[in-house]
Design a protein that fits this description.
By secondary structure, the chain is mainly α. The protein has 13 helices and two strands; from the N terminus they run ααααααααββααααα. A two-stranded antiparallel sheet has the order 1-2.
């Protein structure tokens, strides 16, 4: 008799229960800006990336066995949004919400949930942006948009848009969305990935920046966005394809690096190469824990080498839940490592927690 099996099953249930409780805490406060420490022009926008990352986590939680009310909340959100992406046609941040819509299309909402996304991506592919990947911000007195944001010139974008495009190919049978996504994905990777450190720069402004000890600046959440996006892409790439093999190799390369720089307390530092004295931070840690647990569950990472990494990350995340029910220590909206406090929370941090819970539950179910 395997006496460990009931205990693992109980842990699996506990992960889903903990995540469901946190999801419901967030659902009750979707329109309460006072909860968020740093409100931006996008915070209250139900189609923008801050909330979208929460809904992406909700889809994974629903798939992992959460109560039906989690699925119902996703459907209600999509209907309220009329299944429309954000307003900026080329901006990856405004595409993130479509991942939840496409999930809904496959879980009862039907083609109506997919059609606005397909229309938006058709327009992009028919008339793609032609611009550099170099991140140049015009001086404030000049104004104007950052031109490269029409493409994926910042690491976060690799979570926001590619997964929706490859999922759309899977649902429609048309490979053009996947082909476009992978072409742009590898262009961004070739530009932003540092092969010496096995990590992504957030954008080209950080190529030459160093901290006081002359260490390169690799932002935790910026790399977390990339790492957590890979589980949403790989399953929709053809078996044996060059794209799939390259992405799996990239995932394993990043995982090996992340394993070596996880702090003893289970967190990853906001600046990944500067762990000493760094505060807890749950958005990057949530994404890394999710990706590593997913890699184990899908046979891409050896369980005996990585399970302890995932479990330390998960325990760190659960310790960050505050007495009032919020997930704390979430670095606020930014593009670089910053300080973080216990009461700091955000939609995307909760989304990362839900993603991690979904795979930790599976990790517990398959434990021997």
């Amino acid at each position: 008799m395997n006496v460990a099996a009931p205990a693992m099953a109980e842990q699996s249930d506990q992960a889903i229960e903990t995540a469901t409780k946190l999801a419901e805490w967030q659902l009750a406060r979707m329109n309460d800006p006072d909860v968020v420490s740093r409100v931006t022009f996008e915070t209250a926008n139900p189609r923008a990336w801050e909330q979208a990352a929460f809904w992406i986590g909700m889809t994974r939680l629903a798939d992992a066995g959460a109560p039906p009310r989690i699925r119902q909340a996703i459907m209600k959100m999509g209907r309220a949004n009329e299944w429309e992406p954000g307003e900026r046609p080329y901006h990856a941040d405004d595409h993130a919400i479509t991942q939840a819509y496409l999930w809904a299309a496959e879980h009862g909402a039907g083609a109506a949930a997919r059609e606005p996304t397909q229309k938006a991506f058709d327009s992009i592919i028919d008339e793609p942006a032609v611009t550099t990947l170099a991140f140049y911000a015009p001086p404030r007195e000049i104004g104007g948009d950052i031109e490269c944001l029409k493409r994926w010139c910042w690491s976060d974008a690799l979570f926001m848009a590619p997964a929706a495009l490859v999922e759309l190919s899977a649902q429609t049978g048309n490979p053009k969305y996947r082909e476009f996504a992978m072409k742009e994905y590898w262009a961004t990777t070739d530009f932003l990935f540092d092969p010496a450190e096995h990590l992504y720069y957030r954008d080209s402004r950080f190529f030459e920046r160093r901290d006081e000890q002359q260490r390169k600046l690799f932002w935790s959440r910026g790399n977390g966005w990339v790492f957590a996006g890979i589980p949403h892409i790989v399953p929709n790439l053809p078996e044996g394809s060059a794209d799939r093999e390259r992405m799996v190799a990239l995932f394993q390369e990043m995982a090996a690096k992340l394993k070596t720089i996880q702090k003893p307390d289970g967190y990853w530092a906001p600046s990944l190469l500067a762990p000493e004295g760094s505060p807890p931070e749950t958005s990057g840690t949530g994404f890394f824990t999710y990706g590593i647990a997913w890699g184990i569950n899908n046979g891409l990472l050896p369980r005996e080498q990585y399970e302890e990494v995932a479990r330390r990350g998960w325990m760190a995340l659960t310790r960050a839940i505050q007495p009032d029910g919020r997930l704390g220590y979430v670095q606020q909206v930014s593009d670089r490592p910053e300080l973080v406090a216990a009461q700091d929370t955000q939609y995307y941090g909760v989304g990362a927690f839900l993603l991690a819970a979904s795979e930790m539950a599976e990790l517990d179910r398959t434990a021997r």
